[in-house]
Amino acid sequence: MKLQSIQALRGVAALLVVMLHARALEIKGIAANGLTEQPLIGGLFTNGFAGVDLFFVISGFIMVFVTRDGLTGLKPAASFLFARVTRIYPVWWAFAGCITIYMLAAHGVSGQSDGWHKVAFGHPMVPYLVKSFLLVPQEPFPVLNVGWTLIHEVYFYLVFTLFLLMPRRWLPLLLAIWTAIVASGALLGYSQPTATTFLALAVHPMTLEFTLGAAVGLAVTKGLIWRSGLLTLVATLWLLAALCYEGAGIDFLLQWGRVISFGLPCALLVYGCAGLDMTKRHAWLIPALIGALVTLALYQLTGFDRNSPEAVRRGATILTVSVGAIAMAIVIWFGWLLGQRAPDQLRRIRSFFKSLLDGAVQVGDWSFALYLSHLIVLSALRNVFGLLGQSESLAPFFRLGHPGVLDNITFAVTGLILTLTASALSYRFYEQPLTILFGRLRERLFRRGQPRPAPA
Predict the structure, then answer these.
(1) Containing structural domain, residue 83
(2) Full-prediction pTM beyond 0.90?
(3) What does the pLDDT look like over 310-330, one tens digit per residue?
(4) 426 Cβ partners below 8 Å, 6+ apart?
(5) How far is CA 245 from the centre of its chain?
(6) Three-class DSSP labels, 382-416
(7) What phi, psi does 304 have (nearest 5°)?
């Protein structure tokens, strides 16, 4: 069973991270040209790293949902781990390999050049690369730095595999114990903003986002679904408010701050959307989408971001999220009115939004490739802009920081199109064939009888 709303949320999570890094690279491009213009991408996208928090919550939910048949023991646990490892590592190796080849070509194989020193923070090249490719905690980020999140994911999968060795009825208790251990370790000071050691990884507060998602998965698989439409709207507004307002100190934000600010609304959003999927009530996504777009646009127009003064952010957040809520209410009222007086028109509108949902689901399918490829694509694009921007005739379009917004719009639109295209091609010709191949191999290695019926 494919959960359309959840898959669409995966696409949203990836796009939040893409826009965050597009902003960062746009700032670098402006600085490289010796200019001081503000980037076009701003507003709530300055907190776009919250896409990672949404990913972690979805991951916890999916792990519980895909194992809902209740089969436990050595073979189901090994089958689960095989599926997750073959899902993560081959795609990771491809993109990490691309950036490694670039670094070797640019800085040589000795590993002693300034480039390698900067990337690996002075660590020897071979151990650094081995740990990067194996997704093992170390002080610097992996060679493709977004891989730090996959280190957490691999940890989640290993612990959850251990849970699958035990009776399914123990799962709520096991998750509660895991949550208590992580929270206690973090509160005792064993956590770090970045998980550079196995201990820091084991007790990092972001693990609680995975267990939150798992709790949502338990509720949904047991049929505990309540007011999915209303909760989806509330969660959307809650997450939008956090994206607009959050501006806490970086050490706190990288640990407990993001769990509180983003993990909780993401968990509620996943619960609401999963309920909509289970009950086939996707029409509630229409007011959620309209309200989100209105809030995003208004907050972008204010010119504020997470670096603005706290009082300014608070006022802008209240205003823009309130208008977003009003937009949601108008859409619901308009839908009810059309349902009463022009049902044919309402069906056509729903058909249009159904096509949008299908597109969002497709982006969700590409989300893993999108997450891993976007930095490579956007970095290359910034270099191309740097070359083309040297021409005076092309400067309005390609010299980042040039007066006007043509250069900013060109970079943002081109970057989005190229990253989506690259991820679609990667998914179609590499990730999807590998998924099919390893799926067949998994069936042969862990062939089992007919599973028991899943809970309603």
Answers:
(1) 4-445
(2) yes
(3) 999 999 999 999 999 999 999
(4) 91, 94, 366, 369, 373
(5) 19
(6) HHHHHHHCCCCCCHHHHCCCCCCCHHHHHHHHHHH
(7) -90, 155
